[in-house]
Amino acid sequence: INMNREELLELVKQKDDIEKELNELADELKTQNNVGMTEALVDKEGYPR
Domain Nas2 N-terminal spans what residues (predicted)? Predict the structure, then answer.
């Protein structure tokens, strides 16, 4: 792939923006009764958390 410096910097910025958004979403989940990225989406009775 042949790309110039500006294109590379734009891709790095997009990656950083995506990572920031993912971290914000993960933090929001953690504030909701400790629901994170690895916990079950339903409780032990099968109801959504």
Answer: 9-49
pLDDT tens per residue, range 12-30: 999 999 999 999 988 888 8
- Give residue 2's pLDDT: 83
Question: For residue 47, what are the domain limits?
Answer: 21-49
Residue 49, C-beta contacts closer than 8 angstroms, at least 6 positions apart: 32, 33, 35, 39, 40, 41, 42, 43
In-domain check, residue 38: yes
Counted domains in the chain: 1
What's at 31, amino acid-wise?
T
